[in-house]
Amino acid sequence: MAMADQKNDKSARPAAAPRERSGWLSRIAPGIRKAFAKRETPENLWVKCPDTGEMIYRPDLEAALWVTPSGYHMRIGAAQRLRYTLDEGRFERIPSPASRDDPLHFVGDKAYIDQLRAARKATGEPDAMTVAFGTIRGQPAVVAVQDFGFMGGSLSPAVGEAFVKAAQEAVRRQTPLVVFTATGGARMQEGTLSLMQMARTTLALNEVKAAGLPYIVVLTDPTTAGVLASYAMLGDIHLAEPNALVGFTGRRVIEQTIRETLPPGFQRAEFLVERGMIDRIATRAELPEVLGSILQTLAMGRARQHAA
User: Fold this and answer.
1) What angle do CA 124, 222, 260 make, to 5 degrees?
2) Which tops the pLDDT comparison, 11 or 296?
3) Does some domain include residue 67?
4) CA contacts within 13 A on the Cβ side of 19
5) How far apart are CA 163 and CA 183, in angstroms?
6) pLDDT tens digit string along 88-144?
7) Residue 140, SS3?
8) Which of 71, 227, 261, 271 fits 183 for a cystine, CB–CB 3.0-4.6 Å?
9) Phi/psi at 49 (nearest 5 deg)?
């Protein structure tokens, strides 16, 4: 009985609490777990090359000016273009005159005013053309850049105002005008008002040429439709990035109209250089040097003309 009571007493006692770990390993364990915890990979850390399908590490692509290892020139925004082109990436923004939003009260699948707001939020720009002043390899120039990311770089009254302002600034500062084009054509939401900008920009260029100032166009992918039919083809010199699409209308439409198969590479920059429509192709890395050399040569010629 006594032994049974002793067993019962032991079973009735509460279990002893486990001894706390106090060694050095327990102190660093939380830090180790944190260091090796699964981390979320940013969605945009890798970018797919549209040409080859290769996945490219984004920082490497940015260091290469958004040109893939295969040489494919990806589309870039206005701010990036200005930083890559102008000396030390420094420039003075030239504000464009204000333009009325949605003057025709366009009605479609999505409200035009909402499309404008979304494009402004995505690009950080008021419209599809940005104007700035800076130097390219020491040569001063007014530079206007179209951003395809803003509603396909479409020509609108706001873009027309920006272009006219760029031309006026070039005349006022007595500097060359350089324009980077990237567009799908006129903006349908503003109808005839957009088409009128073809004439307005041409008249503005007449003032630049009357002042004896160089006008250089850099055609980037894509440059089409009404812009190609106006200021994109009125330059003193036309440059283009590799494989840029340059044409008035689409390949399929042309083939259906003329009932013929177009040659390979039709409407690409290399095809047009061979036929004299474009003067030279320059990679994105080469463009500042090429532009600077052209501007310097034209400036020397203009100085000799004035001296004579």
Assistant:
1) 155
2) 296
3) yes
4) 3
5) 14
6) 999 999 999 988 999 999 988 889 999 999 999 999 999 999 999 999 999 999 999
7) strand
8) 227
9) -70, 120
